[in-house]
Amino acid sequence: MVDLIIGWTVFVLLWALGLLVLVDVGRWLVLRLQARRN
Question: Where are the transmembrane segments (predicted)?
């Protein structure tokens, strides 16, 4: 039972981290595109 809780906690943390990275990369790409356009 404890293994299941730890497994889910790690899964959720990794998912949240991946989401943050995706948002960060997306923001960086938008800035790059805007800079290129100007």
Answer: 6-30
